[in-house]
Amino acid sequence: MIEIKEGALFISDAHDNVTREAFYRFLCDIDEGEIKTEQLFLMGDMFDLLVGQVSYTHRHYRKTIDLINRLSRKTEIIYLEGNHDFNLRKLFPAVTVIPIQKQPVTARFHEKSILLSHGDWNENATYRIYAKLIRNPLLLTLLNLIDHLRKHTISKSILKQQQLKYICKKSPRFHRYIKQKIQTYDIETSKIDFICEGHHHQNREFVFDDMTYKNFSAYACDKSYYKITFTDKVVFKEVHIRG
C-alpha cells in the first residue's frame, strides 16, 4: 500500500511532444525548487509515446527521462503507466512504476482509502485484449527491430499522428459513464473513500453515496496539477501553471 504524503502532487495526461513541452518545464520547476514537494504522482500518458522496448521513443524523450531520473533521487515518484507510456520499469530504476496489471493501486491518506489508476484498466473486453497485446515484450521487441530497419518511420508516424489529435473534448455523458464504470470497483468490500483517475481528460468530481470519484484534468489541456491536503476532509487543490 502507498502512503500519500501531505502536499503530494498529482499530474496526469501531459502528452508531452515536440509542440507540448510544458511537462518538462513543470519538472524543471520541481528540480529548481520553484515547485516544492516530497512526493510526485505521475498518473499516466505523460508522453505521447514512450515504450520500454521501443528505442526511438527513449531517444525522442531523452532529456525528460533523464530529468525524471534525476528528480527520483531526491523526490519520491510514483508513476502509474498509461496507454501511451508503458513497460517503463527499466527506464526509471528509482521510480515506483505501476503497470496496468497492478492498477488500481490502494493508497492511504489520513486514514482515508484512495484507489489510484490511470483510468483504462477496466474498459471493455476488446480494449483489454488490445491493451494486453500492445504491452507484449516479444511483440514490441520485434516491432522495434522493424522500426529500426525502417529508420524509425513507424515511431515517427505515430508521434506525428498524436500531435494532430485534439484531446481536450468534454463529454456531456461523463457522469453517466462513470456511474456505470465504478461498478467494476469493489467499493463496499474495500471501504473506498476516493477513486482518482486520469485518462478521460474531463477534470470532474462526483460523489456517489460516501465515495468520491475524481478525474484529473489533462495537463496538456490547461497546465494544471493537483496538491493533496487535509483539514476536515481530503482536498485536491488544482494549481494552474501560468504561461
How would you describe what is shown here?
This protein has one domain. It contains 9 helices and 14 strands. The strands form 3 sheets. It has a 6-stranded mixed beta sheet with strand order 1-8-9-10-12-11, with helices on one face. Helix 1 packs parallel to helix 3.
What is the structure about, briefly put?
By secondary structure, the chain is an alpha/beta fold. Helices cover 32% and strands 25% of the residues.
Task: Please describe the structure with a list of short key phrases separated by commas or semicolons.
6-stranded mixed β-sheet; 243 residues; single chain; alpha/beta; 9 helices; globular
Structural class: alpha/beta
Give the DSSP E fraction (strand runs of 2 or more residues). Answer: 15-25%
Strand order of the largest sheet: 1-8-9-10-12-11
Mean pLDDT: 94
Task: Give the overall shape, derived from the CA principal axes.
Answer: globular
Most strands sheet: 6 strands, mixed
Number of domains: 1
Separation of the first and last Cα atoms: 37 Å
Count of helices? 9
**Regarding quaternary structure, how should these chains be classified?**
single chain
Residue runs with pLDDT of under 50 for 5 or more positions: none
Strand count = 14
The ordered string of helix (H) and strand (E) elements is EEHEEHHEEEEEHHHHHEEEHEE
Give the helices and strands, then pairings:
Blueprint: E1 2-3, E2 9-11, H1 22-31, E3 39-42, E4 50-51, H2 55-60, H3 62-71, E5 76-80, E6 85-86, E7 96-98, E8 105-109, E9 112-117, H4 125-134, H5 137-149, H6 153-164, H7 174-181, H8 187-190, E10 194-197, E11 204-208, E12 211-215, H9 219-222, E13 224-230, E14 234-240
